[in-house]
């Protein structure tokens, strides 16, 4: 069976993380997830994530770094879920594929009914320190 490549954002606003609930009629409807979607042919992961966040939430983020990739088999399909740490910039929260969203502390992620593929990511986030991300290199000022 083919593996479906899915990219998702772990989007921080200060110390909270954005999660959203899939609409009931969608696959895995009712589960909470990190937003994102399928990587299309010829698209790189970061471009795909930016596109999905814009389409599904009207959201802009700064993508920092790859965090964790999980391969998970559901009953009918297998996904490779690739997560990136992001910093929130702005959003109009115009939800197209979700019916709810929340900003939660990483310690509280396990209280939500997360999609099963997301659970190893949520567990890894409990020990994650946002300040461990190196700042972007600064370009020296010209004299
Ligand atoms: N976006 C996203 N999908 C996830 C996560 N965890 C998880 O198991 N999935 C599953 C749900 C879906 O079966 C699949 C992604 O499909 P999707 O419906 O979000 O992607 P899409 O918008 O590109 O697809 P489509 O509805 O246009 O067909 O991966 C997650 O954290 N984020």
From TrEMBL:
It catalyses: 8-oxo-dGTP + H2O = 8-oxo-dGMP + diphosphate + H(+); 8-oxo-GTP + H2O = 8-oxo-GMP + diphosphate + H(+). The keyword DNA repair applies. CDD domains: NUDIX_MutT_NudA_like. Its EC number is 3.6.1.55. It is an enzyme of class 3 (hydrolase). Keywords: DNA damage, DNA repair, DNA replication, Hydrolase, Magnesium, Metal-binding, Mutator protein. InterPro entries: MutT-like (IPR047127), MutY_C (IPR029119), Nudix_hydrolase (IPR020476), NUDIX_hydrolase-like_dom_sf (IPR015797), NUDIX_hydrolase_dom (IPR000086). PANTHER family: 8-OXO-DGTP DIPHOSPHATASE, NUDIX HYDROLASE FAMILY PROTEIN. Belongs to the Nudix hydrolase family. This is 8-oxo-dGTP diphosphatase. It comes from Chitinophaga japonensis (Flexibacter japonensis).
């Amino acid at each position: 069976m083919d593996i479906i490549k899915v990219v998702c954002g772990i989007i921080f606003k200060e110390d909270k993380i954005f999660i959203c609930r899939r609409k009931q009629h969608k696959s895995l409807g009712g589960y909470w997830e990190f937003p994102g979607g399928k990587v299309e042919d010829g698209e790189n992961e970061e471009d795909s994530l930016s596109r999905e966040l814009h389409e599904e939430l009207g959201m802009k983020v700064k993508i920092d770094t790859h965090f964790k990739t999980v391969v998970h088999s559901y009953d009918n399909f297998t996904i490779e879920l690739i997560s990136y740490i992001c910093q929130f910039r702005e959003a109009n929260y115009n939800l197209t594929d979700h019916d709810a969203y929340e900003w939660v502390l990483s310690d509280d992620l396990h209280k939500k009914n997360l999609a099963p593929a997301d659970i190893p990511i949520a567990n890894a986030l409990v020990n994650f320190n946002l300040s461990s991300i190196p700042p972007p290199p600064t370009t020296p000022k010209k004299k």
